[in-house]
Each structure stands twice: as structure tokens, then as C-alpha cells.
Design brief:
The protein has 237 residues and is mainly beta. 13% of the residues lie in helices and 47% in strands. The chain has a single domain, classed as 4-Layer Sandwich (Double-stranded beta-helix). A hairpin with a 2-residue loop joins strand 20 and strand 21. The longest helix is centred in the N-terminal third of the chain and has 10 residues. The chain is globular and about 60 Å long. The protein starts with a strand and ends in a 6-residue tail after the last strand. About 3% of the residues have low confidence.
Length: 237
Amino acid sequence: MRHTITGDNLQFVHVELEPGELVWGEAGGMVYFTGNVRMEAKARGGIMEGLKRVFSSESFFVTEFTAESGTGVVAFAGRVPGKIAAIDLRGGKTWVFQKDALLAAEGTVQFDIAFQKRFGSILFGGEGFILQRFTGEGTLFVHSPGDLVEYDLAAGQVMKISSGHVVGWEDTVAFDIQTVGGLKTAFFGGEGLFVTTLTGPGKILMQSMTLPKLASALVPFLPRQSSGGTSIRIGGP
């Protein structure tokens, strides 16, 4: 399987499949595919794995794409402006991702759920209680709003990240939540009371924009209902 990622902030991932190769994706992520590719909705992994996907905010069914004759092409894109990252899981690697990060994966990639172990991480981490865990000898494609940056932490190296900006991390990385510092910093620093703390070794993936921040930035420009009917706000807030 070969792939290319094109575009800027509205990216596609184009996947080339040889006969017999398979890629699967979340419902609604496919943009187009060539005529020699067969598409089929499946409860991949059976009922239990389907339920796990539902618990992690994904769909019960996934869509599988298989090339039947010659090289086939299928393309996927995210639902909001952002970036796509290709994660190579070969060599026994395991990655953990926040919910909604999955876009598509090679047929050899397995999905499971992971749980936050610390109570503070559940309440204040911004990544949620149920996370997604991926393993297998293949490539995984994830999508997140904004731009993406990957950082390779050395053993014992710590990265502190604004809550909600963590997309995923290798399972060798330790995850925790800490307060930002003193009361003055917490209340007047503008960054909230808590930060996500990741400790190496291992790779981490971070995003420049979160969906709640994107939604909040768009609110002033959305149509507003007034007593005289619908009014549309043009220009600044």
C-alpha cells in the first residue's frame, strides 16, 4: 500500500491499493475511489469491537475498500479544516489517540479502546475518559483541526501542553495532568488551571487548534435570531 497526502489545511490522503490489499475508514471519511475498488460496510472485528468504537465516539460500522483488479485508489479527508498524519505502527508500536482522531487505516491495523487511569486526567485533561488504541503491522491515518506537530521525547523528558491539544502518543509515554502553577498564573494567565503533562520516552502528536476553540471563534459570525427575523452579522464581532 502506498499513500500521498496533498493539500494545505483541507487535506486529502490518497491511498493506492494493489489487488487484495485493504484499507478501512470511518463512515463518512471517503471522498472518492476508482471503479476497480470494492466498498463494503462491515462491523469490523465483530459486535464487541463495533461497540468499542461506539463508546469511543466512532461509528459501529466501518467501510472497507479493496482493489479487485490492477491498482486502485481511494481518498479520505477530514470533516473540518486541519491536517492528516500517517502513523507507522510497524515494529510492534502502539499509539493511543483522543476520540475522533481516526480517519482510515491499513487492513492489518487493529483498534481497541483505552481508559484514562487518573481521575484528574478524566476531569481536566480534555482528551476524555475513553481513548483509542491502535496496534498492528501497518499504517494509520489520523486527522485533527489546525496544524499538527510530532515531537520525540527522550527518556524522562517532559512536555506540558494546553489541555485538549494532545492528539496522541506512543504507549511508552506517561500521561498526567498538573496544575499550571500559582494562583495568579492559574487565574490570570489565560491558559486555564491545568496542563497535560507527557513524559518520555516516545513520540507525541499535538494540534494547534481544538474543535471547541474553533467553534468558539465562529460563534460571533453565525446568524442570530432577532425579533424582526433572522439577521446575519457581517464583519467583526
